[in-house]
Design brief:
The protein is built from three helices and no strands. By secondary structure, it is mostly helical. The longest helix is centred in the C-terminal third of the chain and has 32 residues.
Length: 75
């Protein structure tokens, strides 16, 4: 009796969960196209990451330049 109840509960739960999911998910590009002029919620984070990548590149260039100068001085 308990197995039948448990099986019915699992089947019913799976139907309820799948019925509540949307039929079609929109991509972020589609959402952005629908709302021109509004920014994506992660735009600030993306700008911060881009800025950090620029700083990282600048630091790497400086380190490469110092390494080259040290190498030239040791010759």
């Amino acid at each position: 009796m308990f197995k039948i109840f448990l099986c019915a509960l699992v089947i019913t739960s799976s139907f309820v969960l799948t019925a509540c999911s949307p039929a079609e998910e929109k991509t972020t590009k589609e959402i952005a196209a629908e709302n021109p002029g509004t920014e994506h919620f992660a735009s600030d984070q993306k700008r911060a990451l881009d800025k950090a990548k620029g700083v990282e590149q600048m630091l790497q260039d400086g380190a490469d330049k110092r390494a080259l100068e040290i190498e030239e001085q040791t010759k």
